[in-house]
Amino acid sequence: MKNREWQFDFAFAVDIIAKLNEFNLKLQGKGVFAHELYAEVKSFQVKLMLFSRELKEHNYAHFPTLQLQTIATESAEKYSQQLSHLNEEFVRRFADFKLLEKDFPLLTVPFTIDIDSVPAELQLELIDLQNGIVLKEQFKGLEMMQFWSSLWKDKFLNLQTFARKMFTLFASTYICEQTFSTMNLNKSKCRSQLTDANLTSIMRIVTSTISPGFEKRVKTCSQLHSSH
Predict the structure, then answer these.
(1) Percent of the chain's residues with pLDDT above 70
(2) Under DSSP, is residue 227 helix (H, G, I), strand (E, B) or coil?
(3) C-beta of residue 58 within 8 angstroms of C-beta of residue 66
(4) Which of 42, 56, 188, 223 has the CB geometry, 3.0–4.6 Å to 80, for a possible disulfide?
(5) A single Pfam family, by name (predicted)?
């Protein structure tokens, strides 16, 4: 009996760990923003509750390894409860993102969001934005960050400030991991003369995705002098 119970537990662990690994991969990598992470978290929480209900009813459609076993009723109920507890842990760990949930629609669907649902300091600019036919087409054709950065600063200053704040939220550990990896590569034994100022400059260049606007800077210069 003990051996059978161990087999059930192992089969359940194989299936749920596979799902957690799949979920974890969606949160990694470059360019994952807070609103995207939160959408993945909410989606996975809904899946967990679905799995919990299904296991309670002896439905193992989403657990292929467990499906090969003849599961006892008490084991199925135990796994159902474990998934419910896992969902509660997700709610607790991602509570900070829950506080931002009301702000994400303004960033992701600005042309359909209700004006009354946004802060007063953003309402007038949002009205101008929603009634801009050209802007609506630009939103469809550009990446989200490109669209928000392309808005006229003198007309949509508050909206741009809001978008900038949302985009700079740390959604994953990718930037931290990239930064420490770069720092370790540059602070080697062969670079004993590396100063803090030089390291700071290196870190800023390597971890940034912004391309220097050399052509734009040259055009703004009133006089150009060639080197002698």
Answers:
(1) 84
(2) coil
(3) no
(4) 56
(5) Dimer_Tnp_hAT
